[in-house]
Recover the amino acids of this structure.
């Protein structure tokens, strides 16, 4: 396919550039008035229209921008049922932690998921994948974490594997057995961690069904010591970690993630000096902000501006899940990062493409416009300027997701 007269080809990072940090995040490389050629699903060539080598064209993109498809490096999009009533309880004054303490929250989703068949879960998740595709997502990480026993965690991971087979999105799967302590282990958190280490991780590893292992390392969930045991076990099988941390309190999750070479540490609403320093020492661990969770829970936003100003890289992801962020719209995530955390639109684009690809181990192939890379692209609607993508919030400014 030959696409011509593109107003701007955005995100043409060099082939060896797998993440971008600090001030460079705003300097997203753009070719103005360009053409791009896709051959057999691969970006064959692109450049300025001044050097356009052909007479023919398949798609006239006058007035439109072409970008790498969004990479959403953190979702829980396989779930059995929405939790709108908890949302209403929060409007009335309960906190996310209050709801979790009285047995709702994640455990509510666990009850619902255990009761549903693999087929039903697949059908619902397929609709969500189709929805995020329409708003520009081309690569997505999907976590388990609503099964909390071997049978149901495997059920979720099989649904994710089936989505990978049956859709054209690139999908990475993550085992999140340590998302909460299930009801049958209430009062025996360590027993549940033992079970994860003894039974769940070895079986999941044997089936090769998870790319990464995640832990909700936070106050009221799993401790740093629990998290270390789980990450170490996963590493024995060559599976890298990604963690949820510093959402409810700064208990040392970021520092551990950096020490253990995790691919990303996500949430980060409660950063402290030790967490900043750990990230500065460990560029292999991508700091990942989830501003839709802050928006929806009414908790502080991740201090993205301070992170970038200190020279760190930042990725953005949706956290699409039924409790804290029931949306996978990466355009809205970008708007929130800009309006609520002082990110520049160009920084938000870098964070939602190249850096979020890095946060799921895909930045060699995704998140940038590069010759020879898979053509995971999006074409915007006709827009007056690039910033309009996030400025015009609530609309879908993506015309086509090409995968
Ligand atoms: O990333 N913080 C922990 N886990 C999810 C929420 C999951 C849920 O509430 O169902 C998150 O926000
Ligand atoms: Fe999450």
């Amino acid at each position: 396919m030959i696409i011509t007269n593109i107003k701007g080809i955005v995100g043409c990072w060099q082939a060896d550039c797998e993440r971008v940090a600090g001030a460079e995040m705003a300097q997203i490389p753009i070719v103005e008035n360009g053409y791009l050629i896709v051959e057999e699903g691969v970006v064959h060539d692109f450049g300025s229209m001044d050097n356009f080598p052909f007479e023919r064209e398949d798609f006239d993109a006058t007035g439109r921008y072409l970008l790498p498809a969004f990479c959403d490096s953190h979702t829980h999009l396989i779930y059995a049922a929405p939790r709108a009533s908890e949302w209403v309880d929060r409007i009335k004054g309960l906190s996310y932690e209050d709801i979790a303490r009285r047995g709702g929250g994640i455990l509510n989703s666990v009850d619902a998921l255990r009761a549903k068949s693999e087929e039903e879960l697949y059908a619902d998740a397929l609709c969500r994948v189709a929805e995020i595709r329409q708003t520009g997502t081309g690569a997505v990480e999907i976590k388990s974490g609503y099964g909390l026993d071997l049978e149901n965690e495997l059920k979720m991971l099989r649904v994710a594997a089936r989505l990978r087979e049956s859709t054209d999105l690139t999908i990475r799967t993550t085992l999140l057995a340590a998302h909460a302590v299930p009801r049958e282990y209430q009062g025996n958190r360590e027993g549940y961690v033992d079970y994860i280490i003894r039974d769940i991780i070895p079986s999941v590893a044997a089936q090769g069904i998870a790319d990464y292992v995640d832990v909700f390392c936070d106050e009221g969930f799993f401790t740093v010591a629990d998290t270390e045991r789980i990450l170490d076990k996963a590493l024995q099988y060559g599976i890298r970690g990604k963690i949820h941390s510093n959402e409810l309190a700064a208990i040392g999750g970021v520092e551990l993630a950096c020490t253990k070479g995790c691919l990303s540490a996500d949430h980060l609403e409660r950063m402290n000096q030790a967490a900043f320093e750990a990230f500065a020492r460990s560029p292999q661990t991508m700091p990942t902000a989830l501003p839709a969770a802050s928006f929806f829970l009414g908790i502080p936003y991740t201090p993205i501006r301070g992170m970038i100003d200190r020279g760190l890289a930042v990725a953005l992801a949706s956290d699409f899940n039924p409790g804290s962020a029931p949306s996978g719209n990466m355009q809205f995530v970008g708007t929130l990062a800009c309006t609520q955390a002082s990110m520049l639109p160009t920084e938000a684009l870098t964070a939602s493409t190249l850096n979020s690809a890095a946060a799921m181990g895909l930045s060699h192939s995704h998140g940038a416009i590069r010759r020879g890379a898979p053509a995971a692209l999006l074409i915007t609607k006709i827009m007056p300027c690039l910033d309009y993508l996030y400025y015009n919030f609530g609309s879908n400014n993506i015309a086509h997701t090409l995968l």
About this structure: The chain has two domains: 2-69+366-402, 70-358. The mean pLDDT is 97. Residues 76, 105-106, 109, 216, 244, 247, 293, 319, 321-324 surround N-(iminomethyl)-L-glutamic acid (ligand 1) (CB under 6 Å). DSSP finds 15 helices and 15 strands in the chain.
